Each structure stands twice: as C-alpha cells, then as structure tokens.
Amino acid sequence: MQIVNLSIFLPQLLVPIHPLLATATKAENAPIVLTAVLLSLVVIYIASKIGGELSKKFDLPPVLGELVGGVVVGASALHLLVFPESGANASDSVLMTILQMIDNLSPEAVQSIFESQSEAISILAELGVIVLLFEIGLESDLRELQKVGYQAAIVACVGVVVPFVAGTVGLMYLFHLSAIPAIFAGAALTATSIGITSKVLSEIGQLKSREGQIIVGAAVIDDVLGIIVLAVVASLAKTGEVDIFNVIYLIVSATVFLLGSILLGKFFNNSFVAIADKLQTRGKLIIPAFIFAFFMGFLGNAIHLEAILGAFAAGLVLDETDKRKELDQQVIPIADILVPIFFVTVGARVDLGVLNPAIPENRQGLIIAAFLIVVAIIGKVVTGWAVFNQPGINRWAIGVGMIPRGEVGLVFLGIGAASGTLDKPLQAAIIIMVILTTFLAPPFLRLVFKQPVEVEEVVEVKQPADVAG
Amino acid sequence: MQIVNLSIFLPQLLVPIHPLLATATKAENAPIVLTAVLLSLVVIYIASKIGGELSKKFDLPPVLGELVGGVVVGASALHLLVFPESGANASDSVLMTILQMIDNLSPEAVQSIFESQSEAISILAELGVIVLLFEIGLESDLRELQKVGYQAAIVACVGVVVPFVAGTVGLMYLFHLSAIPAIFAGAALTATSIGITSKVLSEIGQLKSREGQIIVGAAVIDDVLGIIVLAVVASLAKTGEVDIFNVIYLIVSATVFLLGSILLGKFFNNSFVAIADKLQTRGKLIIPAFIFAFFMGFLGNAIHLEAILGAFAAGLVLDETDKRKELDQQVIPIADILVPIFFVTVGARVDLGVLNPAIPENRQGLIIAAFLIVVAIIGKVVTGWAVFNQPGINRWAIGVGMIPRGEVGLVFLGIGAASGTLDKPLQAAIIIMVILTTFLAPPFLRLVFKQPVEVEEVVEVKQPADVAG
C-alpha cells in the first residue's frame, strides 16, 4: 500500500523507468493476485459443474454446458470473469469489485491485480488445452485409424476442405473480411468433435455400424487435420500476412513435426518405459510424461506452430506404450481440474451481446453467424457423398454424423480470441456455430438413422425425472 | 513485433497512459509467455526428478532433493530459473536468453515475457503449496491426534515456543535485525517435518514405540501450530508493524478459523458426499473438493490470514468423509505435478552465493546461518525434557526425533521470499537450516536409539546397489 501511494507523488514518467518500483508493487500485490485467482477458479469450477450437469440432464454433451456456463459468468451476462484483451477494465469485473471491497484497494492496484489475475487464468487455461490435447492423443489409437482406411480419410478431407474453403471465401467476398480473420473463422469450421459424435452414435446403437465406423474414423482424422490447420492458421495470424511460401512451409513443417514425432516416438517409447520403471519417487510416471508433453509443446511453439500440436503428438506416442492405461488413469484428475478452465474461459471471453438483434449495428454479425452455421452444416453433410464403393450406405447418416463441432473448434476460438485475430462479432458467431451444431446433431442423427420414436421412448423410460424436469 | 517497435517512436510517457497499447503488446507476447512457461516447467520437473531420485538413492527424503535441484537450476548455480523479486533481469535468466535467440525478441519484449513467466510460475507454485497443504490435511487424522494426547501436545508446544523465541530474540538482540524479519525467521524454525520424521522412525522400527508415537503426534500438532504461526507472521509482514492487539486478533482469528471450519465441517461433510454422489459428469468428486479447498483458501486470504490455512482446514474436513480414499487417490497425481513446482522454485529463488565464505561481507550471513542451525537443533532437543510421568523414556530420542524441518519450514521460506520480508542472506540461512536438520536427523536418530550398526547393515543388505553407488 505504501508504495502504491508513493507512486502518486512521483511523476508518471518515473514509473516505467524504475522497474524495481513496479516489482515492489507487484510483490506487495502478490497475495491479492492469489486471492483473485482462487476466487476465479471457484467461479470457473462452479460454472463448469452446473453447466456440465445440466447438459447431462438434457442428454447433451457436458462440454457444451461448461461452455454455456462460461458464457453466463463471463462478458455476456454476470461479468464475474472478464478479460482485458476484450478491452475490459478492472471496474468491469464483478470479481474485482468484490476484492476491492474486501481489501480496500486503490484503483491502480486493482487494475494491476486484474491484469495479473487474467494472465494467470489464461496460462492455466492454456495448460488446460495442452493437457486436453495430450489426453485426446493418448486416447486416439493409431492402429484403429489405419483399419478404417481410405473411406474415412476421404470423408475427413472433404469435411475439412469444403467448410474451410466455403467459409473463408464466403467471409472474404460476401462480407468483405480481411484474409487472416476469414481464414481463421473458416478453419474453425473444420474439425468434427469425436467425443460428441461417438457418444450420440453409441446411444443410438450405431457405433459399430459401417456408417458409425466411417464417421468415427473420419472424426479422428479431421481432428488431426484440424490441429494441423490450426497450427498453420495461428502462425499466419502471428505474422499477419498470407505468403504462399510461408503457408507451404507451415503445412509441411506441421505434417513433418507430427509424423516425425510419431516415428521417432516408436524408438523413444522403450526408453520412456525403462525410465519410468527405474524411478522410485512420487510422480514416477506422470512427471516424465509431462516433461515429454510440455517439451513437445515447447518445441511446437518454438518452431512457430502450436503447443497443442506437440502435446497431441506426445499423447499419440505415449499411447503406444505398456504404461498407457496407468498413465491415462493419472491424467484424468489433472485434466478434470485444468480442462474446465479452458472451456469456461472460452465461453467467458465471448460477449454474446454483440449479436443482440435489437441493435441495428449487430445485423452484420448476425448474418455472419447465420452464414457460418449454414456452411458448417452443409459443408459436413456433403461428405456423405464422398463415400465410394459402398452400395446401400446411408450417405445422409454419414454427413449428419460429421456435423457436431466441439473441443477443437473451441480451441480455434480460444486462440483466435486471445491473439486478437477474431473480432467480437466473429467470436460470438463461432461460439453460436459450435453450440448449435452440437445441439442439432443428436436429433438429426436419430432422424436420418430412422429410429427417432423408439430411442426417445427408451431415454424417457430410463430417466423419468427428465420428463418432469 | 510491430507494436513493440512502434513504442520506440512514442514518448516513454505514453506507454503507461495508454493501457490498450500495453495490452496489445501483451496479447502479442502471449504465445511466447506460454513457450517460456512450458520450458520452465520442463526444467522444474527435470530438476525435481533428478534431485528426488538421487535423494532416494542416498536414503534421504525426496523433497530435500527437489529443493537442492531447485538450488542447482536457480539463482545459485545454473541461472535457468530466476525471479525478478530478487532483482534479477531477463538477461540474468539463461532460459530467457534461449527464448530470445529462438524468437529474435527485443530486450523490452524479453523483459515483459520474463515478468509474465515468473508471475505464472509463482502462481503455479502457490497453487502447488495449496494442494500440498490440502493433501497434508487429508492425510492428518484428527482422531489419531486425540489419542496421543497431552504428552505430544506439550512436546509440540515446547518445540514451537523455544526455537521461535530463541531465534527471534537472538536475531534481534545479537544480530540487530528488525522485528518483522526476525519474527519470520524465528517462526520458520518451528515446524517439524511429519514426513521425514515418520519415515526415519519406520526405517529403524521405532514408529510404534512410545517415543515414536509421541514424536509423530507432536510433529502433526506442531505442523498445525506452525501453519497458525505462519498465518499470523505473514499477516504481520503485510502490515509491516507489530501491534500487540493485531497479534492477538490474528492468533484468535487463525485458531477460530481452523477450529470453526473443522466444527462446521462436521455438518458440511454430509452435504459434500450427497452432492458428489449426485453428480454424473467427469470430475464429480475432485471438482467439488477443489471448489471447497480453493474457496477456503480464498477465505483464508480474504480475512488476512493465509490461503494454505484454508486449504489445510478443507483437507482436515474432507478427511472425515467416506469419499476420503477415492479423493486421496485423485489428489495424488495433481499434487505430483503441482507440488514439485513449489519446492523447486523455493530452492531456485535462494542465492547461496550470498553465503560464499571467501567474501568478507558474507561473514554476517554465515554467522546468522550457524546461529539458526544451532537454535533449530537445541530448540527441538530440549523438548525431550518436556515429557513427564513417563519413567524410563528416551528423552534424547524424542528431542532428536523432532529436529528435521521440511515442507512447512519451506513454506515459510517461500512466502517470506516472495513477499520480500526475508533478505537474501536470511533466505540462504533458512534453506541451509532446513537442508542440514534434514541431513543430520537420520544418523543422529539412529545413534540415540542405540542401534547404529545393525540398521546400517540391514539397509546395506537390502540395497546392495547403494554400496557400489
């Protein structure tokens, strides 16, 4: 407090020149930053649990509820959790106002604490998405993928290329967006959610059908493609310009990085198991695994791709070891506490107010949102007609099965929002696209598999509470 | 990059006035901050694992190795991990120099990334110590404590009061330190390490002896006392003055907070179990537990005590539920990845160079270190003579058994260093005190239990590799 007050008597000029003064203030604020971080985490966890459980009750994927929970506590509604990147100040944050009352802080101190807290939560969210991708990597089975083969690969490629091209070109020529945000938004349309798709398929008993196998295989492949696309697009956003050689370099380096680490991983696997077997102290499996995952993440960032690409590659590699199950078991609680931070902050960063139809200036944003949703749906439905040599296959089912977007789409949104590439209406449009495709896919899928009535009944009989609720 | 360069053309004055400019730079640096955090975590994990495993090999507690690993990578030796609070700049950090080469950054950008990275690692370390205390709380059994009774309580109180008073008074009157740092350093001498003590006792087969039971009981009680003392002392350090009413208020509020939460916890227990049983989505046990722990931590901070006191109370409360074992299981991997960040950064923050005996100005610091070590040992050895009504008891064994300091002493050091209360020589003196008491206790304990030769042989026969190594 003393030093904060002292700074009032100093000319403003002195503050940035004497870094020691700034550091002293920071050290003094440190316990309050921790208080703010703890309170933010409490808000995040409560939002994620209430949202997740409500989703589950309505038979929707919990991740959707976590996202909506984030929207509720964030910039759109309660303002408990807001971020300075969107132009918010400490006074816009209800949480900061609470802290200011408790600790009787000066406005400058609150602003500094607000920025430190936001940065800490952002880093935790980024560690969350890294752990999420590491876990997805651990759960993706490379051998299974090879079995589904060409059909799934073609469906995946069509399902990546069509929405990406249609989205980007449409945004640039119909809505006159500049190239980088258009490419980013187009890319956010590419990746089907494995989790949501496979859950719905298993609920309607179609997971092991020909269509189900192709859908799941394609969803896994387009996740990988999506992560490569993200690495390329995020890197373009950093330099701020689209240079064809740079694009080629990025695509090649992302592919080489991923394939190279999988190939090298086959050798590394044995040493990893040998090291983990030798260690005697606590964390003997999880710490070497995290050293590997974080180092790969660092490498991914260092070669100007994305940390999550490295973490995903690390997961794919360690999936091949004997330790897989034990590791999976230990990653689960870590993911449980870190991943919700990512999904909730993605939701919290978005201000749905920018799409309020009552305000005339918002029309453009609403039209863009509608456009993205149409492209997102049609761009995936057409994939059903990419299947060949499969007489009698249900092409509608495959196309509709590919519709739901989820985790990876949100990763695009999170990175685009944090880097400032996506403006507010575009962020809101993408989050609505993710929410709507996820909401619509389950009933559509039941419809095209032509068993809507029976399934509804089974669900109702199983959970009578839902009928009342 | 563009905006960083732009700031050169602007008068220095403008930078703090236009927060949007600063934010833009921050957003641009964000991916590099993440790269820096990932690389720091890789360094921290490697240091903790190498240190921990080497300690284990030499039959010492792993936490000591993690601490020494931190010293090696930190300000004392490799300079991979340094912190701005100690006056270090980005150019002092080897890790930042590596990043600067990879990303070709301007000196201003590197400094800003360095500060953000240090802040993120500090928050992760603080979350680590919160999880650590939550876990210690989960593992402390209140009913066991009640059994050991008065003897242990008296040993604990003597073992807290004697080193605290002797240390504080000695530092103030012999070495002319001002009150706050003297009290902080004195308080750092109070808490015996449960983990280290009980491990050594079990190795020499004395855990269930009368002496062993009193030692372990007293170690648990003085951990609790130590955490209360820490909450009080850290709060004094924040206000910067010792006011007798404030001290009384703090002691009362810390005790009431701890006892109150345990009593209220008895009611809360059932609702916690009921909630956890109702939840269906991932993290249904760990997320409610962390909401509770973090909220208690927030409360602890909000009433100007410490977050760790709240986390410890939360652990004690949840220890009483049926979910205890399941929860313990899930907290372990989370603690495994967060707690080492705390111990390694505590070691890394300390610059042992300030005790280099070759430099004459360091003599004072060295003498203080020697004084603290003597007080730390004698202050605990005398506790043996506090035992009454126990004819034939080995008083030396009890006194020596209380010597090793560990986690809680390091928590004092970490908080004192981060808040700037402890100057560099005092930090170095405390870390040497913790290391030496932990090193010395095992052989001393074997000596006073009068079975040095046999035990050594058993250990050698069990682990023949150690003799060669």
Automatic annotation (TrEMBL), chains A, B:
Domain Cation/H+ exchanger transmembrane: 50-449
GO MF entry, a single one: antiporter activity
Gene3D superfamilies recorded: 1.20.1530.20
Kinase among keywords: no
Pfam families: Na_H_Exchanger
Alphabetized InterPro entries for the sequence: Cation/H_exchanger_TM (IPR006153), Na+/solute_symporter_sf (IPR038770)
Transmembrane segment boundaries: 32-51, 63-83, 150-173, 179-202, 214-238, 244-264, 285-318, 330-354, 366-388, 426-445
Localization, UniProt: Membrane
Membrane-protein topology: Multi-pass membrane protein
One biological process term in Gene Ontology: proton transmembrane transport
GO cellular component: membrane
Keywords: Antiport, Ion transport, Membrane, Sodium, Sodium transport, Transmembrane, Transmembrane helix, Transport
Family membership: Belongs to the monovalent cation:proton antiporter 2 (CPA2) transporter (TC 2.A.37) family.
PANTHER family the record matches: NAPA-TYPE SODIUM/HYDROGEN ANTIPORTER, SODIUM ION_PROTON EXCHANGER (EUROFUNG)
Record's protein name: Cation:proton antiporter
Biological source species: Iningainema tapete BLCC-T55
